[in-house]
Each structure stands twice: as structure tokens, then as C-alpha cells.
Design brief:
By secondary structure, the chain is mainly alpha-helical. It contains seven helices and no strands. It is globular, with a radius of gyration of 19 Å.
Length: 245
């Protein structure tokens, strides 16, 4: 019970700091691009796909909305909701990172924390983004449930594959891990019936780059903070164990 409490506190402390940084980054990176896309969305509603408005599928970048539903107003209210969403997301992903790293023996130093962050970036952002890149409002998207199923399957396959490559003791396990990294992309992500959109290609490209970079910062910072703050909770967490040779 003490270990679980320490894991929760470690994830919360790391996640809150990361959420603050992410919110500041988004103010100057992704938010202006989303607002620009909403101009096209509101100017040409007849050209939109009947599919639901698209959303950024990378872990900390969610932008789904429905014009018929209530939305926070631009400015302070919108950024406040974004900050709260970032905090919940960062704490949740932080708990996953802490639990996985403790199961593997614990993070030994900030460099290893960055490696865990890079691995999580590959699992939750890079691999799913290859099939379902971040999308702006007014861009068509496939049905929500198939996208969620493919995203979740890709995350599980990528995490398992990286785990087998990193901790598998035989060449066969490493080969199986490499195969798991490829399988979701051989299956392919669900695609919308049409890719026609009023959003300029350059705007979408800049959004994809901004989302990817901010998510990379998110995971590197989260992994590093977990590593740096872990000694404060080490009394209730298992000591790092030697990695298998």
C-alpha cells in the first residue's frame, strides 16, 4: 500500500510540472494552428466530411469537439481547460511510466529516465502517428471506434515489442519483438472515405510537426522528472535491481 501511494505521489508530482510546461508550449505552438484551422472550419461548413471532426491522436494532444456542443471560450477559459486536461493526462501517463519502470527494476538516474521517456514517446506518439497522424478541425477522419481499436492495438504491440527487444534473453524473442513493431502498420490504420479538406497542406504539416515535437518534450521531461524525483520516494519503492546480462 505504501509503495502504491509513493507511485501515485511520484506520478502526480512529475505530471503537474510537465502539465505546466506543456500548456506553455501549446500556447505558442499547437493552439495558434488549431485556431487557424477553426477559421477554415467555420468558413466552409458545407465542405466538411460527415465524419466527426478529427482529433490529434498523440497522448497529450486531444482536440475533438462538436460544434453543437458547449465549448470553452477562447482565451483564459480555454487555456484553463487545456491546463487541467494536460494535468490529468500527464499524471495518468506518469503513473503508467512509474509502474512499468518499477516492474522492470526502477529507473537508475536521469539518463535512464530519458530513455524510458523516449520509449514511451515511441509507444504512444511515434508508432500510432505513423498511421493516424494528428488532425486539425475540418479534416476528415475514419469512424472513432475503429481508430481507437487500431491505436490501442498499436500501443500494446509497440510496447510489447520494445520490451522483448530490450529484455528478451534470446534472439527469437528479439525477432518476435521486431515483428510486433511492424504488424500494426502492415494491417494499416482506418482511413476516412475521403481526404478532401479545406485545411491547407502546409498548415496540417506544421501541426503534425508541432504535436510531435511537443509530445517528445512531454515524454523526455516526464521520464527525467520521474528519475530525479524517485529518490524522494525510494523508501517505499523497491530498490533498482540489476538488469539481466
Amino acid at each position: 500500500m505504501h509503495a502504491l501511494r509513493s507511485m501515485l505521489l511520484l506520478a502526480a508530482a512529475s505530471g503537474i510540472v510537465v502539465a505546466i510546461v506543456m500548456t506553455l508550449l501549446q500556447i505558442f505552438s499547437t493552439v495558434p494552428l488549431i485556431l487557424a484551422a477553426e477559421v477554415y472550419e467555420n468558413a466552409a461548413p458545407a465542405e466538411l466530411s460527415p465524419a466527426e471532426p478529427a482529433a490529434a491522436v498523440a497522448a497529450p494532444e486531444a482536440h475533438e469537439h462538436d460544434a453543437a456542443e458547449w465549448q470553452p471560450s477562447d482565451g483564459l477559459q480555454r487555456m484553463s481547460f487545456t491546463a487541467v486536461a494536460n494535468a490529468v493526462t500527464a499524471i495518468g501517463f506518469g503513473l503508467l511510466l512509474v509502474a512499468a519502470s518499477e516492474f522492470a527494476g526502477g529507473i537508475r538516474g536521469w539518463r535512464e529516465g530519458m530513455l524510458w521517456g523516449l520509449a514511451a514517446f515511441a509507444v504512444f506518439t511515434l508508432a500510432p502517428g505513423l498511421g493516424l497522424p494528428p488532425e486539425l478541425p475540418a479534416m476528415p477522419a475514419a469512424e472513432l471506434v475503429p481508430r481507437q481499436v487500431w491505436w490501442l492495438g498499436t500501443v500494446v504491440a509497440t510496447a510489447t515489442g520494445l520490451g522483448l527487444i530490450a529484455y528478451g534473453r534470446t534472439l527469437a524473442l528479439a525477432a518476435l519483438g521486431a515483428a510486433l513493431l511492424i504488424v500494426p502498420h502492415l494491417i494499416g490504420a482506418p482511413q476516412p472515405p475521403t481526404h478532401e479538406t479545406p485545411i491547407p497542406e502546409d498548415l496540417h504539416h506544421r501541426f503534425v510537426v508541432a504535436v510531435t515535437v511537443t509530445n517528445l518534450v512531454f515524454w523526455l521531461l516526464l521520464g527525467t522528472l520521474v528519475a530525479l524525483l524517485r529518490p524522494r520516494f525510494a523508501a517505499d519503492l523497491a530498490a533498482p535491481t540489476p538488469r539481466p546480462a
